[in-house]
Design a protein that fits this description.
The protein is an alpha+beta fold. It has 2 domains: 150 residues, Jelly Rolls; 107 residues, Orthogonal Bundle (Arc Repressor Mutant, subunit A), CATH 1.10.10. It is 41% helix and 27% strand. The protein contains 10 helices and 11 strands. Strands 1, 2, 3, 4, 5, 6, 7, 8, 9, 10 and 11 form an 11-stranded mixed β-sheet that branches. Helix 2 packs antiparallel against helix 3 and helix 5 packs across helix 6. It is globular, with a radius of gyration of 19 Å. Keywords: DNA-binding, Repressor, Transcription, Transcription regulation. InterPro entries: AraC-bd (IPR003313), Homeodomain-like_sf (IPR009057), HTH_AraC (IPR018060), HTH_AraC-typ_CS (IPR018062), RmlC-like_jellyroll (IPR014710), RmlC_Cupin_sf (IPR011051). Pfam families: AraC_binding, HTH_18. It comes from Bradyrhizobium lablabi.
């Protein structure tokens, strides 16, 4: 895989350089756009001020609605799928800058952060037309401090690597609302239900049932983030839940919020 010599968004986007190891890109993408797997020499913080995207790395898949952002370390292969028209704001950090700032080891791995109102405003302020170098430095520092306090994995789906387990996972992800029985999946991918169950637990740190529930809730988050007119009752029915309370309980188990509370923030 080639290393992108400059950020993909820089091709058509608005590029801002701070002159101190950090540059920023503002870019809009339409629903359906895919930025195929690539990597950068810099680490990056990717935020959609509006819209929803999906970020895939070797570790797994994150849904990133507007109240979340994703940290991508340097040289990490990743792809971005635009699920709803987005206004992307991306900050790129040279490794020398990160080293000089003595950032924590948590930035060595990818993760999603919950974007607080403070972090949201700090990121947007970095892109306005009145930013001075002193103000930019303070806003960048504030942004980095907020990252250490906001890690969130509610929208993360770990992806297994073992071939049979990955095939089974892909089948579920292609239809997360389906009623997937592990015995049927095991026969399809050429193994036993016991082996497939063991593989899911070892590769994703989740039971098969819990992993499928996470995939289903991720599908719910995508729908909530891309269809503002969708009712919770209709969503519960579309996802195959017997009732709204059953759906709300499952949703809260994964995200810590009810569907209604999540939709109000998304």
């Amino acid at each position: 895989m080639n290393i992108a010599e400059k950020p993909i968004a820089a091709i058509l986007g608005r590029r801002i350089s701070t002159g101190d190891g950090i540059h920023m890109i503002a870019k809009t993408y339409e629903k359906g756009v895919r930025l195929d797997t690539h990597m950068h020499r810099e680490a990056q913080l990717v935020y959609a001020a509006r819209g929803t995207m999906q970020v895939t790395t070797p570790k797994g898949r994150w849904l990133v609605p507007p109240d979340r952002a994703v940290w991508v370390p340097a040289l990490l292969p990743h792809a971005i799928d635009v699920l709803a028209d987005i206004e992307m704001r991306t900050l790129y950090f040279d490794l020398a800058w990160l080293k000089r700032e003595q950032r924590s080891a948590s930035l060595d791995a990818e993760f999603v952060v919950r974007v607080s109102p403070l972090l949201h405003q700090a990121i947007l302020a970095l892109f306005d037309d009145h930013t001075t170098s002193e103000r930019t430095a303070l806003l960048v520092r504030l942004t980095m401090l907020e990252l250490h306090q906001a890690e969130d994995s509610a929208t993360f789906i770990p992806l297994p690597h073992e071939p049979r387990c990955r095939r089974a996972a892909d089948i579920v992800l292609a239809d997360p609302t389906g009623d997937h029985e592990i015995e049927t999946l095991a026969r399809t991918v050429g193994t036993s239900a016991r082996t497939l169950s063991r593989l899911f637990a070892a590769e994703t740190q989740l039971s098969f049932k819990s992993w499928c529930q996470r995939a289903r809730i991720a599908a719910a988050i995508e729908k909530l983030s891309t269809d503002v007119n969708l009712s919770v009752k209709q969503l519960a029915s579309d996802l195959g839940y017997a009732s709204v309370p059953a759906f709300s309980h499952a949703f809260r188990q994964v995200t810590g919020k009810t569907p209604t509370a999540f939709a109000e923030k998304a």
